[in-house]
Sequence to fold (345 residues):
Amino acid sequence: MTVFPAPASPAPAGAATPGSVTRAAGAVAAAPGLLRIGTRGSALAVSQTTTVAEAIARATGVDVALVIITTHGDVSRAPLAQLGGTGVFVSALREALVAGECDLAVHSLKDLPTGPCDGITLGAVPVRADPRDALCARDGMTLATLPIGARVGTGSPRRAAQLLARRPDLQVSDIRGNVDTRLGRITDDLDAVVLAAAGLDRIGRSDAISERFPLHAAPPAPGQGALAIEVRSADVALPVMRRALAALNDPRARAEAIAERALLGTLEAGCAAPIGATAAVDGGTLTLSATVYRLDGSEQLTAAASAAWDAAMPDAAAPTELGRRVAEELLARGPEQLAPLGGTR
Fold:
């Protein structure tokens, strides 16, 4: 049985007096006692960044301002694969961070390219939310009870392949847009859509979920459900930044994310590659399982491995090696015959 984390507890007695959290209408100048967090402007991005900002304000006592950054991925309706990969949601935030327009940036971790970015460090990975995919269907139907030939929307080649692997009769359509736009199509031209459960939970739309897919049946995108907090490398040692990042970082979530991202990077897989991965810490063991799908769902390859891990270990070494090991096992079995690899990372 998979147990997902409960909401964060209130700050303990004696903690710093919380600073204020505000949302800026435009640019915000740097100032003592203020941390600026760059975020996309969607309801989901603002919701998850607000949670991060409140945690920082509690831990440090400084004021926190959300700075809204518009990315190309937010304004284009083209399929994600045509926009240049998941980095389309990240580059504008990183540019703002490097330019000094914000002090931290919050991303959905699955959106981060796996390659390094000069001048920027992954400062923290908070406690991970539910990583599962969620079916949102009319009349509360599940995947098993959808009618023959039902129309299901998703913008993810991975989700499309997984749907067709379990229900080859489905008509799967590529869709874009924010959560409300996608959910609105259920009453229009689709019978169901598949979205990340974490996103729906974060914006208070859990009521739209008719089924949460089991991780073993539908492994999610690497990093799904996790957030990535990026910071300028030169600022990591600042006392206020150290306190902020320490309050946010969860060693278990970070290890899982690093393992999944190392797998993706070793496979050189971009957004067009239907790859699902699940890393999990159980006691002193970190386990990673990954599956590569043929785009039509007709074939798949799976590999898994485990490694010893504890929170006192260097946070990247063991998870990175585990991710590479699972990826190399997959590569030895010819995954490029099933899925496009070597794409944008």
Notes: Confidence is low (pLDDT under 50) at residues 1-14, 80-84. The chain has nine helices and 14 strands.
